[in-house]
């Protein structure tokens, strides 16, 4: 018992120093040298709120107001009545913003990523279908040729990792930066 | 199609890792030389000298369990101390205060037991020092504790020597699990994750990548950020998603091979792997098919397409569905999508996986030892059916072993049902529940399923903590939920460990009789089927009525509540 207690106490301290201090600090050093931008937080991976401004591509709806410093899930359940109202509001807003520039746009043609909130609240990506609908609006409001906007969408589409893993998505953060350039 | 391809690719890759990592772990725990020995050997020997451990002293089951419990107890006190003194911490640039005592009780119990249930949100309550020197250390240590219990049980089953009294040395096993297995993989994994956008700094975001990798590898699951691996800085790309899922499942899967190698019959290991894989495959297919469709609320609003609520575009439906199955068959509990927002049938899958008692791959170590208890039970049932004395690998399974096995397997479901009944049947559980109707019941049931099974994933509407401001000022816990959860985790972690080690102690000394014509084979697909049947029957029968009231009700109706 006593011997176990002494060994335990020593082990707690030694393991905390090795695994809790030395390991993370060494890894921080390596990461900062090898990948300085990514290790400090690559802002291109975080969605920015466009506040409904028609000049920009809107990212997916966010439960957190696009705040990366205090994240939480929407906890919107599959059979919640409040969820239905939320989706109806989202559909209405999307149609109001994009309908005038995309004739024939109906609720049935609105991509699901445009009305359902992301997990992180700061998902920067939208589907290509969503981006192509918004392109009509952005091109008209900015008085840019649609082809130019579509080219920018192509340039700011992140493909699957290694060509196979994950899903492709249009990065609204980098796309909006490119539009302003 | 692309989604199915990714799921199949994932299964192929992790299965291909099994013989390599499994063989490596077997060599580590039998004391053979491995390629890392020249580097880690000196550190290991130094550590034994500092700890004053005599590695030649093999411990009997009571001594082994004693060391494990005392070590965990001391670490519990230390972690409580760390988390309660946040105002004194270095690396606390946001000047966070400590959480209330009851929330800390829950958090400490959660990390000591490899559960990582979180009533707190990491980025708004925890100093970087708490995260790395408190919580992340437990991600290593609690995982290693799980592994050593499995190893001790394997040694007992494998032992062919008359008069053996020891299961091995706890301190030696612990050290080897930490420094030969968990740490080297974590170091390599951290670099890969940082390259995919997972942050690792001490200024703005915190040492995330170094914690992220061990959180997955040790099947812990406690996120640095509140939304866990959905956050881009915890999981930034399709590749990081793949690597993290691989890290979650690779050790539990490989331990089956370690087992086969250590008992001298790889077929025994592959049979267990096959049974686990079959149950895993079913859950992946069901959850992926379910998530391809929208929810009742989405249909009612006129939204078309798959259910993307609470999911990230870069992982897609396949990457989120696969993750949801991987993290709940193992006892990881990290999430990359919101479980509460899964479709009704999709949400049923994590619950069913928890109901198996974390034996389908399961936690690191815990999965294998739980499955081995099921194996002994299946052997016993099979033996009764053919009318022979049940035997496993030449060792007779008698009354004492079966009593211990059943006790070990029943503690967790009993804890779940009693805790969930208290939470839903009394008024004290109500403040924790977010949703109304069956979803609210699902939240309560899932909370205690997850905590007692040491998983840690959540239908996140269920809360035990009110936190009006970042940094814990003015925050308070819901004492009922935090204490009930904390006690469930401790009880359902350490009681089965003690029973498992007791089973090991009993099996160690059994005389080995040679296999005869009447011996039931335990390395065939038939036995695999019997094993699956045992797991499903016990899991399903125990929880079927409860699960009917939650996700099953919602899956059968388009009614909104």
Using brief descriptors, characterize the structure shown:
heterodimer; A: 181 residues; mainly alpha; 3-stranded antiparallel beta sheet; 6 helices; B: 561 residues; two-stranded antiparallel sheet; 18 helices; 1% strand; globular
How would you describe this structure to a colleague?
Chain A has 181 residues and is mainly alpha-helical. Chain A has two domains: 2-39; 43-180, no CATH class. Helix content of chain A is 49%, strand content 4%. Chain A is built from six helices and three strands; from the N terminus they run αααβααββα. In chain A, α4 crosses α5. Chain B has one domain. In chain B, strands 1-2 form a two-stranded antiparallel ribbon. In chain B, strands 3-4 form a two-stranded antiparallel sheet. In chain B, β1 and β2 (395-396) form a beta hairpin.
What is the chain-wise order of helices and strands of chain A? HHHEHHEEH
Q: Report Rg of chain B.
A: 22 Å
Unreliable spans of chain B are none
Strand coverage percent of chain B = under 5%
Task: Catalogue the unreliable spans of chain A.
Answer: none
Please state the structural category of chain B: mainly alpha
Helix content, binned percent of chain B? 55-70%
Instruction: Note the total helix count of chain B.
Output: 18
**What pair of chains forms the biggest interface?**
A-B, 84 and 115 residues
- Spatial shape of chain B: globular
The biggest beta sheet of chain A reads: 3 strands, antiparallel
Strand proportion of chain A, as a percent range, falls in under 5%
What is the first-to-last residue Cα distance of chain B? 34 Å
In terms of quaternary structure, the protein is heterodimer
Q: Give the total of domains of chain A.
A: 2
Distance between the termini of chain A: 69 Å
Tally of individual domains of chain B: 1
Largest beta-sheet details of chain B: 2 strands, antiparallel
Fraction of helical residues of chain A: 40-55%
Order of helices and strands of chain B: HHHHHHHHHHHHHHEEHHEEHH
- Biggest sheet strand order of chain B reads 1-2
